[in-house]
Design goal:
This protein is mainly α and 75 residues long. It is built from 5 helices and 2 strands; from the N terminus they run βαααααβ. The protein has a two-stranded antiparallel ribbon.
């Protein structure tokens, strides 16, 4: 299962907020922000800090994408 933070980027655009501003407001590291930018997994406490800063829920900023499971014959 893949993760997408496109909802977060959309929310930031709507709020006219930069990644640097969110990093400072949420109190997260630039490394965590870089991972978000690459749609990589981050710790739940990072998502919690972002949600607290933006007054939203995890569902508002994260989307889980189901990837097709390969058939046994595809190996």
């Amino acid at each position: 299962m893949a993760v997408s933070y496109n909802k977060l980027w959309k929310m930031m655009i709507d709020k006219k907020m930069t990644k640097t501003e969110l990093t400072h407001l949420a109190g997260i590291s630039t490394n965590a922000m870089a991972k978000l930018g690459r749609d990589e997994d981050v710790r739940v406490n990072i998502l919690e800090k972002i949600c607290m800063a933006l007054d939203c829920t995890v569902d508002d900023i994260v989307e889980f994408i189901h990837e097709p499971v390969p058939d046994e014959g595809d190996k």
